Amino acid sequence: MDTTKITLVTVGHPPPEFDKSKFSTWNSTVFSIVGEVENFSLNSQSDEANWGFSDENLEAALPQSFSGDFLIAIVNVPLQKNWYSRRLKKNRVVITAHEITEILQFFNIPFENFIYRLLYAYTLHFKRNGNYIPLANEKSSRHTHDETRGCLFDMNGIKTDIHLSCDNPIICPECVEELKKDRVSTDIISKVQTEIKKIKRPLFYRLLSFVKKRPIISLTISICTALVVGIIGSYIASYLFEITKNEVTKYEQGSSIPKDFFKKEKARDNKNEMQSNNVWLTKRRVGETPREKKNRIIAYSYSLDLVRGLELECPSFTSKSVWNEDISGFKEIQYGVYFTVGCIDNKNQKNGPYISLYKEGEIIQEGEYRNGKLSGIMKTYSKEGKLINSYNNSN
Has domain 4-202 been given CATH number 3.40.390.10? Predict the structure, then answer.
């Protein structure tokens, strides 16, 4: 099947809504735009009522020769009889944006949809007349119908009806039969019917129209979408939490503490607190194995943010730190075993208040040490925060 070649030009000041780049990306097996979309000046004045331009006036302004099988010229002035399209001599057609752009904008339809519709309509018109565009006054030249059906061949005597054939247009059954009678092949008709389905409003306005027509269905879809997004978000959050929680396991499986561990912590803590914590971390306890020391460092790293948030007032000669006598490795912390935050003096001796917490941050026990020994009231709480025991260590 030979593709019909069309020369597309603008005459006079192009309509602001016209974007010629759109037509170079339009794929069709029925027609092709030949060359660039050129612009020609319109030097004549209107010679019809209501500032209209007659056919004779525009024929003189349009190019006389062109490389396509026929030419379509786009103008932005009123045409003879205030039509939106006129067929001229020598296989030339003129179409106007006058009043059309305002109508299409009201219905959120791009101006290029109007051009696409006429490109297909005039291609079929060219084929059915033996590769010729007849004038309006020639015999058997009319192939439009006055009734508006959303068809390529709607007359659109009432211009505001034009939006119906610029958004998902069709070829109505009557026109299909007329095209077949005029010896237009069924292959061409079928291809045009397929390609004109691409002539539609932008997605946003199609969705907006769907919501207006079907509010209940739209509301149901919105609720289901919100639930699905919420479930997906929950799974992602859980996944990220598991990655964070299991980060320590990588260390326990034999990898070393990162070289920049203390460097990062130093950037986050003030100098005095960091120096004290480094002593606590790097000093090996009596009887402590290398693995236990590593677990203690890992536990400290994991619980550091909770430690900073505690309102624990240590004496001036001590510093806030994490104890690990209450735990036996970080793996148990993962499953709920508590750790203790308390005060350590410069002799590495417990001195001052302490608080024991679960991993999630609930307080399980609080009390006080003096010179390494429990002193005063020691309170124990349930995980729900209820006091379950109070013991005086001074007795």
Answer: yes
